[in-house]
Amino acid sequence: MIKRQIPNLITLGNLFCGVESIFAALVQNDVTAAALWICAGIFLDFFDGMAARLLKVPSELGKQLDSLADVVTSGVAPAFIMFRLVEEPMKALVPLWGVILIMIPFLLMPLFAAYRLAKFNIDTRQSHSFLGLPVPANALIWVGIALAGLVANNLTLAIVLAVAAMFTNILMVSEMPMFSLKFNFKDMSWKSNSTQYIFLAGCILLAAVESIFFKPSWVVLSLIILWYIFMSLLQKKHAE
Known about the structure:
The protein is mainly alpha-helical and 240 residues long. Helix 2 (31-54) packs antiparallel against helix 3 (60-90) and helix 7 packs antiparallel against helix 8. The chain has helices at residues 2-26, 31-54, 60-90, 96-122, 135-148, 155-172, 190-213, 219-239; strands spanning 130-131, 177-178. It has a single domain, classed as Four Helix Bundle (Hemerythrin (Met), subunit A). A two-stranded antiparallel sheet has the order 1-2. Helices cover 77% and strands 2% of the residues.
């Protein structure tokens, strides 16, 4: 009985991190802490399914609980972080409609995330790969931007990010194939894992370029997810 609950406890840890992230953003106004809490939650999210498989205790309850935790940690929490980031630049906008236009994509983020997770739970086509951008991947885009402190008081950048947020929201619920990051450990050859090898090489290159030519920052998280989207688009075009 205890063994069966271990994956669920890990999932609840993910949910706890999401709640702490929201608290840090709204109450403490600490965007950095809020973003780090999301990172911790996504880290735990990676291991709950693995724990269930290793312990041989997969369950429908765990699957539903995982989605509920992801809605909070990777859907609601990033929206509050982005609200805090664009809050200061928005003060330059006197018309109320201008503020609303900037905020809509971030306010919709939890709704798109919830819809994507519900869709994922009932879609049998997504057992080994994804259709649409995974919710934690979307969250990491905004976590990287938050930790890098890119918005500051720049209204133009805030508007650009709002447009980008609407794009990633739509991408979450789209039918665009996204390749799986999991290696085929039974056959580590180039033929079986070429996409994963290329993606990994690109991630290492991005991290190296940022470290050598720019001030190291967490923005590399955002760049890695954008690289993932770009590679998925290329793969789709090649398949066609």
